[in-house]
Design brief:
- By secondary structure, the chain is of the alpha+beta class.
- It is built from 23 helices and 20 strands.
- It folds into five domains: 27 residues; 103 residues, no CATH class; 100 residues, Threonyl-tRNA Synthetase, Chain A, domain 2 (2-Layer Sandwich), CATH 3.30.980; 271 residues, P-loop containing nucleotide triphosphate hydrolases (Rossmann fold); 88 residues, no CATH class.
- Helix 5 packs antiparallel against helix 6.
- It is elongated, with a radius of gyration of 39 Å.
Length: 680
């Protein structure tokens, strides 16, 4: 027994650690087993089960129905052999040939009593079976003669049936005429032995020791029966002390090998409703990318309220996964050709089905993947040329002004209408306030952020939208195939709430999309294969990240959804901007050259970059508030201005040189720009 230290003042008197009078906590958790099977309680599971059974029956009926004539010919040809087998087997039955080995044994062992008993038994059987055979033959012949006279057509039917039956008896055992319509490969039923074998194979020392120990297995035990759960099996178990589900998730490939399943079938996870050592192991019948997904519920009918969760896909068990776009900024990342643009388009389709919302779609890939949304877009552009980026810049300047206007409107509202200082469903529906949801989507967002002339301002506006937009009803969705600090600026990635990560190639890209530490926690989009298109880790909707497959809506289907959304918007009166042929008005935004020249003092001929950035942020915080020393050089480089070593005095009075800009260079660049604009 463990003992504690002796009490102060006592010599060597051990005190028991376990107090027998210590009361129990009195807390008990009960988990009721379902009355109905899971597939009877879920409409989608019930539909999937019935569809699978009826589809199999229908296919088998059609398959064999088309082959009935050929089956008849083959069985007729085998009827003579079947007749011979029938006569032979009937003779064996009448003369009790099956008991002949027993009688032979009695003769060889000279067991007279046993032989006589068997002989009497055989005589009785032969008499009875012979009588039955004669009666059947007489009545059969009489019935055939009666049919020949009274109903010859039925005689032919019975004769055909008899011939086919004899043909069945004449089949070769290894080559039946009527084979299966579906060639099945039977999967092993998931059992506790298989689960333990697989867990032992992942190489975790504590799990292997528990499996080998047996008995209580160091706390490792199944907490319920292995059951069917959707298109697969579910096993719930407690892991050994000190082992967490992430330890198993990291070795998913080895676990799949131990289960003898494809990698896409095996999905271990924790149970957020239980302790940290509870593992839920779900093993699908087919890989996730091979399982037929149910159609998107909004594909043919329905409207959307962006303030409420909306179905956008399914998990591994084909359960519906919902997403709520309000009050979040969204980031989507993946390598090319994994379904990133389809996911972005799906989210914009969801927004389009809310007739109050304004949709802005910008496709910098230039392939027109967002083209189906044009009839409902307030602003739309596809391309990466300078004129395309200028269009987007003017549109985003409009959005920046709208952001400021909304902040003033919400600030002016009484607390009784806006208690949380953010847009509510009631405020969004009040058209006089203009606080309807605005959803702006960027495909290949690295293109505008890296543009030499407009990149800095676009990045500044988008960062502001990611930070302040959600509370004001403006949702930014940023999709990129190159998740790094340049393509996905920290100001955006750090403030994104809803994150979707399809396949990526490195842990750095994984954490850039899903957040720092995601890879270490076992949330790894690197585990997806090239065939896992549309499958992603989704973080931000719920307490824990989940794996989801977005609904597949191709171009023609998207056009159908947009046509329905257009009708809803026409009825509501919300067809604006690009949808009616109007573009953004030109607005003055960030004037880097002019603003930089203004912050020079009259007696200054050169200025450090850090002081230039600080003065710009102080004078125009809404435009340059996010600028740092590193922002100056890239913003001025497109105008032919380069930084040089500049002599100056620090705030402490120390003379030194730092990288900076000369006033004359800015003035010359400003003169050239104005002359070019005048000439144009």
């Amino acid at each position: 027994m463990d003992t504690g230290p002796a009490s102060e003042g006592e010599q060597g008197a051990p005190v028991p650690v376990d107090n027998p009078a210590l009361p129990e906590p009195g807390v008990r958790t009960e988990k009721r087993r379902p009355i109905l099977a899971s597939w009877l309680r879920s409409r989608s599971d019930f539909t999937a089960t019935v569809s699978r059974a009826s589809g199999h029956a229908g296919y088998a009926s059609l398959y064999h129905g088309l082959r009935v004539p050929w089956y008849s010919v083959q069985l007729t040809m085998m009827a003579p052999r079947g007749t011979a087998r029938f006569v032979r087997e009937t003779g064996r039955w009448i003369w009790d040939r099956e008991a002949a080995p027993l009688r032979d044994w009695a003769v060889r062992h000279e067991d007279v009593e046993e032989y006589m008993r068997l002989a009497r038994l055989r005589a009785g059987r032969v008499r009875l079976r012979g009588f039955v055979t004669i009666v059947a033959a007489v009545f059969g012949l009489g019935f055939a003669l009666w049919l020949y006279v009274m109903a010859p057509a039925y005689l032919y039917a019975f004769a055909a049936g008899g011939i086919l039956s004899l043909g069945v008896l004449g089949q070769q055992p290894d080559a039946p005429v009527i084979g299966p319509a579906v060639m099945r490969t039977e999967l092993q039923k998931l059992t506790g032995t298989i689960v333990l074998r697989a867990l032992d194979s992942i190489g975790n020392a504590k799990i292997s020791a528990a499996v080998k120990k047996g008995g209580d297995m160091n706390g490792m035990r199944f907490t319920s029966e292995i059951t069917r759960d959707g298109p697969g099996y579910r096993a719930d178990l407690d892991l050994p002390y000190g082992v967490v589900p992430e330890d198993v998730m990291e070795e998913r490939q080895a676990l799949a090998s131990g289960l003898r399943r494809k990698l896409g079938c095996v999905w271990p996870s924790g149970d957020p409703e239980e302790h940290e050592g509870r593992l839920i192991l779900w093993v699908g019948d087919k890989p996730m990318n091979e399982t037929t997904k149910p159609p998107w519920p909004l594909l043919k009918e329905g409207e959307v309220d962006l303030f409420k969760p909306v179905v956008f896909g399914n998990d591994q068990r084909m359960r519906e996964i919902v997403v709520c776009l309000m009050f979040v900024s969204v980031v989507i990342g993946s390598v090319p050709r994994m379904g990133k643009t389809f996911l972005l388009r799906l989210l914009l389709l969801i927004a389009a089905l809310d007739s109050r919302a304004s949709v802005l779609g910008f496709d910098f890939k230039g392939t027109g993947d967002l083209g189906p949304l044009e009839p409902v877009c307030h602003r739309y552009r596809s391309g990466e040329e300078d004129e395309d980026l200028l269009y987007v810049l003017h549109a985003m300047r409009e959005l920046k002004e709208e952001l400021r206007r909304r902040a003033k409107v919400i600030r002016s509202l009484p607390k009784s209408r806006c208690p949380e200082s953010k847009v509510t469903p009631a405020l969004a529906s009040d058209r006089s306030l203009g606080l309807h949801p605005i959803v702006v989507g960027f495909d290949e967002c690295q293109v505008p952020f890296e543009h030499e002339k407009y990149g800095a301002e676009l990045e500044s506006i988008c960062t502001d939208i990611a930070k302040r937009g959600p509370a004001l009803g403006i949702i930014g969705i940023f999709a990129t195939q190159r998740p790094d600090a340049k393509s996905l600026p920290p100001g955006i990635s750090a403030n994104a709430i809803l994150r979707f990560c399809l396949k990526v190639m490195s842990h750095t890209a994984n954490d850039m999309v899903l957040g720092t530490g995601a890879y270490k926690s076992g949330v790894r989009a690197t585990m997806f294969s090239r065939s896992d298109r549309g499958i992603c880790w989704m973080s931000g909707e719920g307490d824990d990240p989940v794996i989801a497959a977005s609904a597949f809506v191709d171009g023609p289907a998207a056009e159908g959804v947009v046509a329905r959304a257009r009708q809803l918007r026409e009825a509501y009166g919300n067809i604006t901007g690009h949808a009616i042929g109007e573009g953004p008005t030109e607005r003055k935004g960030m004037d880097v050259l002019g603003d930089s020249l203004k912050v020079f003092h009259a007696d200054e001929e050169q200025l450090w970059c850090e002081r230039l950035a600080a003065r710009l942020a102080e004078c125009w915080p809404d435009v340059y508030g996010e600028w740092s020393t590193a922002s100056v050089a890239p913003a001025l480089r497109p105008w032919g201005i380069t930084t040089t070593d500049v002599w100056g005095t620090t705030d402490e009075g120390e003379k030194t040189t730092k990288r900076g800009i000369k006033r004359a260079d800015i003035a010359a660049a400003l003169t050239r720009r104005d002359a070019d604009r005048a000439a144009a």
